[in-house]
Amino acid sequence: MAQNPGIPSLKDYGISRFFQNQTFHFQNLRVLNDIAARGGDLNEVLMAISTIPDGDMDTWFDAFSKHMVPT
To answer: What is the spatial distance between Cα 41 and Cα 39, in angstroms, rounded to a whole number?
Structure first.
């Protein structure tokens, strides 16, 4: 498909996924969606996922158990 000469091409900067593992990426999107329903806050979610190796389910559970403490 030819590029429209009137529209400049855009380069992709940054990251477009939280995890390479599709299941982990999808579940993280679900967790972020729950923020609106008072299911946590953005900082809790980002702190939890920053410690999770891609595809490690035990670490996922431990990270969210530690950071997402109910009040």
So the answer is: 7
